[in-house]
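hey so u asked for the seq, here:
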Amino acid sequence: MGRALPAPWTVELRSLVIRQLGDTDPALTTIARWLHGEWSDLCPGAGLQLTTERLAERCGQSLVPSLYLASLDGRPLGTVSLVGLDMPLRPLLSPWLASLWVSPDWRRRGIGSRLLAHVEARAAAVGLSPLYLFTDTRQAWYARRGWMPWENLRYRGLRVTVMRKFRPGD
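ran it, structure tokens below
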């Protein structure tokens, strides 16, 4: 009989791997299911196939757009993207941190923070500043990580806060 895996909160995350997805990465379907399940109500009528196609546009070797996956021992745990435009109401703001998501069983263990820091570091390394995002519920979480509120508005039926973060030294 196999040895049971430890509970998620006891797992050491030093071996967490964050990698950028390429054009044909099989993890794309997993990420599409996650994000479609979480945010499909923001895009009524957009099915899983359309979500997958939009995410595929983020795959490849460029920084904007890009799609990242966090995994531990080959098990996918979370994702984040960097995109040129995430809110058509604000077309002059760019680039955007988008779709930060961690599997519910693995939340509150630092994976989201690691994904966020990874994308921030990649953007800072090439001088992209500021970065933008919008959130309807996680303003305090992002604020604790240095993000500042930029604007409050109504978007796709939600009250959201657009936040921004400058590269250190800007």
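The beta strands are 17-20, 66-72, 75-83, 96-102, 131-135, 148-155, 158-165. The CA atoms of residues 97 and 169 lie 20 Å apart.
lmk if thats what u needed
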